Amino acid sequence: MITQGSCLCGAVQFEGTPSPRGIGICHCKMCRVQSSGPFFAARMEGGVTMTQARGLKWYDASDIGERGFCTECGSTLFWRSKSAAPGDWAVSAGTLPDDAVGPILEHIWADDQPAYYAFADDTPRRTEADCLAGAAPAKPHRAKP
Ligand SMILES: [Zn+2]
Ligand SMILES: [Zn+2]
Questions:
Q1: What pTM did the predictor assign?
Q2: Is the pLDDT of residue 144 over 60?
Q3: From the CA of 12, how far away is ligand 1's center (Å)?
Q4: Where are the alpha helices (DSSP H) in 16-134?
Q5: Distance 77 CA to ligand 1 centre (A)
């Protein structure tokens, strides 16, 4: 189902079909600096179509990815791989209607997760090395209490 997403102020608006399979949660330090917590990454089937890009700016964050944000309100919006197809971006789940976001599918950069929070789900935890190698998800395990 086509769903609309937006930053806080509306200077960035977009649409697409969130994957019903669910979302990935990234615990890397860069995501946590940018957004205060882990990045809840939704994938849009068929990519993202921008309907308002006035406020959109891309930050060249690392060798592998860029981070899109709104220059007018500061909302964290997108992550995109430098090698991925155009529009195949990870979208901040918080920018989408709550009922359009699927369940937690996996955790990435799980070895970067700090001790001050934990998730109780049983989905796979992939380390930075797993992610960089494009490895299959690790065996599911329960997060430490
Ligand atoms: Zn904005
Ligand atoms: Zn991250």
A1: 0.88
A2: no
A3: 6
A4: 29-35, 128-133
A5: 9
pLDDT in tens, 30-76: 999 999 999 999 999 999 999 999 999 999 999 889 999 999 999 99
Instruction: Please say whether the beta carbons of 9 and 55 come within 8 A.
Output: yes
Rounded CA gap, 100 and 1, in Å?
9
3-state secondary structure of 133: helix
Write the pLDDT tens digit of every residue in 69-116: 999 999 999 999 988 777 789 999 999 999 999 999 999 999 999 999
118 CA to centre of ligand 1 in angstroms: 30
Q: For residue 71, how far is its CA from the centre of ligand 1 (angstroms)?
A: 7
Distance 31 CA to ligand 1 centre (A): 18
Q: Where are the domains of the chain?
A: 3-133
Q: In this structure, which CATH number among 2.170.150.70, 3.40.50.450, 3.40.47.10, 2.60.40.10 belongs to the domain 3-133?
A: 2.170.150.70
Query: How far away, in angstroms, is 35 Cα from ligand 1 center?
Result: 14
Query: What's the CA-to-centroid distance between 26 and ligand 2, angstroms?
Result: 4
DSSP H stretches of helix in the chain: 29-35, 128-133
- Tens digit of pLDDT for each residue in 13-36? 999 999 999 999 999 999 999 999
